[in-house]
Amino acid sequence: MIAFRSPARFDKSAVILICEKEALKGNRSQLSGLRLPGEVMSVLKSGRFTADNGELFPVLLKGKIILLVGAGKSSELSMTALRTAVRKALLSPFLNKIKDIEIIPYSQAEETIRAVIEAAVIGGYVWRKYITKDQSPVSVDTKNIFIATLPKRIYQETLLVCQGVNFSRNLVNDNADTVNSAFIEKTVRGIIKGKRNLSISVLNRKELKAKGLNLHLAVNQGSRNEPKLIFIKYNGAGSKEGYTAMIGKGITFDTGGLNLKPTGSIETMRTDMSGAAAVIGVLKNTIALNLKKNILFVCALAENAIGSGAYKPGDVLTGYSGTTVEIANTDAEGRLVLADALAYTVKNYKPKCIIDIATLTGACVVALGHDYSGLMSNDDSMAEKFLALSRETDDRVWRLPIYPELKDAIKSQIADIKNTGLPKGAAGTCSAAEFLRQFVGETKWLHLDIAGTAFADNQGRLYFGYGATGAGVRLLTEYLRKN
Ligand code: BES
Ligand code: MN
Ligand code: ZN
User: Fold this and answer.
1) Residue 265 CA, closest ligand 1 atom number
2) pTM over 0.90
3) Is 181 in the pocket of ligand 1 (CB under 6 A)?
4) Contact, 191 vs 172, CB < 8 A?
5) Is 332 in the pocket of ligand 1 (CB under 6 A)?
6) Which tens digit of pLDDT belongs to each residue from 80-103?
7) Which CATH entry fits the domain spanning 2-151: 3.30.70.2860, 3.40.220.10, 3.40.190.10, 3.30.70.890?
């Protein structure tokens, strides 16, 4: 639970007091206006706590703990560093067994408070579903957090968006055989249940076959799960307003197919539905924020499995658009499923613009690493908007090019195009985007490659712990709000 109350009260078992370095000198600071307990004042004066970024200093006070958290110099402080510091405090062993925590920020600036909320909800998220033995850190969602600030609508909204991010992360983190296509359909139906301005239509194997979405079907051929293409229409604006379409890659497990992935690459492939999970998080946010927009949410779901039924390298398939595709590699399955979904959406729903989000290429991890998603688009103004929103939300994207010569990279000798790029190893993220581009026609389109950002291995990164990050949810929600 998160609550907003002002002024600061120092009345909970634990208090997180965030200090900027400047606040320790002179009287101009916010801190001196706080009427701090004497014990805290003397620590601040003693020079033992210097408020370097990430510095933690516990002060015990009548059975309570006041945890001083350094934010560093405010002139040098990024909101990312602030989130990281607050997260570190919340998950620190000092607070493990404490349920009620007051957070007192050094500033009442809106961006500071929003960063604190994100630090608590996104930063405090820990995937613990299958942990049966006590283990720290303890997920912050089991605690009561009181943030010392005036309650504002914008803070309630930030909180809702963060909850959408975590909803998406839960879908990604769980087992592939739990979160299969049927489970995802059930989840979506649960979200929209009883809502008047929403409708859903699902294409299953039978309908996909009848309509000729053969690329999508081929990818799922080796699986016993049903392939599904789910459309959710959200009507938040008048009927004259066009639709923004949002399509997520939902490969519930990517073995690579007969071009089987090696050990070291296959272990986290349950996360290959992160695009679809992001779309579902954004759907949840759209409803929670009651956005006055018309939006089409699309989840393209399949499992890239192996077995005697699996599709094969060398196959030539005709997709929904009529374009023939040589399967050069069964591990380049995401673009196949998306190609049919894009072509079908453009033809049958005629959206004013279309955004897809996908864990599409390992090459994107090589190009941009784990902190920036790849952005590619056939529309400069859309791309510019996303880049600006990326800086605002800290849901980071970086643009990569699509250019005419990439057509040659996906030429085939036996079909119109093939599903991998040439030469091998060169700009694989861009040739994958060029492949997708050929299925959207003249529609304004933007593609997000979240292969590097959707999942944090090892100790996590930025203010995300181990596991799914919800990459794209904040960015896409903000885009829908403003466009
Ligand atoms: N799902 C993978 C991409 C991926 C890689 C996501 C690492 C997350 C982390 C995608 O389906 C894939 O396998 N792409 C291939 C394409 C290649 C065969 C042209 C790749 O990147 O190796
Ligand atoms: Mn693959
Ligand atoms: Zn994949």
Assistant:
1) 7
2) yes
3) no
4) no
5) yes
6) 889 999 999 999 999 999 999 999
7) 3.40.220.10
